[in-house]
Amino acid sequence: MPWSTEQRTITEKGALFRSHHDGSRQVLSPETSVATQQAIGSDIMMVLDECVPSTCDHSFAERAMHLTHRWALRSLKARGDSPQSMFAII
Which member of 14, 16, 60, 82 lies 3.0 to 4.6 Å from 9 by CB, making a disulfide possible if both were Cys? Predict the structure, then answer.
């Protein structure tokens, strides 16, 4: 189930948001996040994570955790055989 704020929408596909530069719609998926980090030569890549407010209820946090886990698996697959390290966000 996607959720939105005025600035962003979180879905299985990734984070959809408006650029603050030109107002265009952008999609940051686990795969594009990894590709960007590979392109800039990050020593340590971070997986895409749904960050929830500390005040959210248990079911919301659990749903976000499962989404983050699925994104992490996709990130790991997108990493391929890259020598760059990859870490989860905790």
Answer: 16
Residues 80/69/46/58 CA torsion (nearest 10 deg): 180
The structure's pTM equals 0.84
C-alpha 11/C-alpha 67 separation (Å) is 9
Distance CA 6, CA 3 (A): 10
Strands 14-18 and 3-4, bridge-based pairing: unpaired
The burial of 37, by beta-carbon neighbours within 10 Å (0-12 exposed, 13-18 middle, 19 or more buried), is given as: buried
Reported as type and span, the H/E element at residue 72 is: helix 58-79
* DSSP state, residue 21: T
